[in-house]
Design the sequence.
């Protein structure tokens, strides 16, 4: 076991550490009578520690946090991430394992007299969780699956987080405008998607928040269409769903555009979806159930006789992950809280014809919401 302490912190940084999320996690641990929490989910790991390394796959981790109910939290990783962890994880003791997590974990839990260890059962692979429980049980430690311990802290964004999300939204809009100006009939969906993601990197983004969707004509009837070699046609609706990740935080935006003059049906459906989006945004405010916001938009589309053609929820939370709680759908009774950042993205999808979807991001406020999307040029069809 190798111990590496993070670099010295300034007085201001030390003060910020006093307000670090791991302190809130520790309070939760004490309330739930857990001695420590093992954090494996990448966004949770980053939120709690500031450590930005990404996992290469769900089966290979860049590290784990071990947060005791009291005392100094630890970041457990391997040699590849040693310097990065020491640089980024202020307030954390960085420990390296050479033969995997479990060997180091057994020693740490014994030294700290941990008897009940929480772990993120909703994220850890079943095989890994089974092995963790078996090995620790042999050393007198109960491994307890927990859900939402960190995610509940991430629900409401603070001012710094909202500023980061706003910058990601602004960059996303800038990139969309740049690429839109170059669109021509005959380009393939795949070519446009590649141009968007290339522009993200060229404009300083971390990268795409998710795989870009470009769906022209009939392919637009697939809400999560994968770009193909189909060429875009003049006059047809083209759904472009794109998100930029910047400084770890995500943006998510959908625009439906037409190359050339749209026909009457396209204009009618576009205006219907836009009306539904505005109704959904008008309904968003702190204290209402997610289902009420969904209903406000869904009723617009239902009254037009197309309720069955809007089959997904109105929106979702966005932050370090592009899809996170809350979920704005017809079944959710959870209430929106001030400081949440959510999407509002109604759509209509007609098999054989195509689809229309419009998506903005908003910050939930006490008496309404703030629209983070400044550009409305492509919403005035």
Sequence:
């Amino acid at each position: 076991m190798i111990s590496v302490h993070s670099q010295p912190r300034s007085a201001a940084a030390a003060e910020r550490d006093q307000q670090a999320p791991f302190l809130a996690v520790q309070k939760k641990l004490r309330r739930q009578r857990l001695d420590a929490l093992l954090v494996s989910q990448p966004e949770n790991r980053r939120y709690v520690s500031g450590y930005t390394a990404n996992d290469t796959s769900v089966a290979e981790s860049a590290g784990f946090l071990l947060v005791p109910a009291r005392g100094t939290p630890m970041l457990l990783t391997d040699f590849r991430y040693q310097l990065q962890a020491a640089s980024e994880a202020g307030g954390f003791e960085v420990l390296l394992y050479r033969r995997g997590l479990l060997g180091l974990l057994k020693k740490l839990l014994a030294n700290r007299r941990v008897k009940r260890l929480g772990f993120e059962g909703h994220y850890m692979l079943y095989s890994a969780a089974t092995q963790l429980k078996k090995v620790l049980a042999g050393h007198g430690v109960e491994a307890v699956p927990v859900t939402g311990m960190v995610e509940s802290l991430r629900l409401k964004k603070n001012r710094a987080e909202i500023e980061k999300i706003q910058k990601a939204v602004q960059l996303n809009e800038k990139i969309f405008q740049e690429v839109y100006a170059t669109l021509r009939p005959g380009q393939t969906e795949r070519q446009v998607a590649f141009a968007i993601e290339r522009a993200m990197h060229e404009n300083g983004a971390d990268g795409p928040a998710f795989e870009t969707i470009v769906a022209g004509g009939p392919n637009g009837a697939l809400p999560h269409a994968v770009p193909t070699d189909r060429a875009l046609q003049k006059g047809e609706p083209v759904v472009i769903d794109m998100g930029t990740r910047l400084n770890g935080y995500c943006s998510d935006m959908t625009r439906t555009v037409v190359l050339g003059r749209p026909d009457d049906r396209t204009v009618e459906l576009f205006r219907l979806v836009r009306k539904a989006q505005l109704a959904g945004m008008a309904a968003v405010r702190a204290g209402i159930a997610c289902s009420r916001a969904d209903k406000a938009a869904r009723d617009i589309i239902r009254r037009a006789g197309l309720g069955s053609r809007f089959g997904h929820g109105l929106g979702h939370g966005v932050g370090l992950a592009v899809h996170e709680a809350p979920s704005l759908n017809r079944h959710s009774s959870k209430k929106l809280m001030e400081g949440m950042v959510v999407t509002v993205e109604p759509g209509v999808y007609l098999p054989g014809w195509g689809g229309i979807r419009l998506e903005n991001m908003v910050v939930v406020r006490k008496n309404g919401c703030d629209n983070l999307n400044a550009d409305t040029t492509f919403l005035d069809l």
Notes: The radius of gyration is 23 Å. Confidence is low (pLDDT under 50) at residues 1-9, 13-18. The CA atoms of residues 20 and 324 lie 21 Å apart.
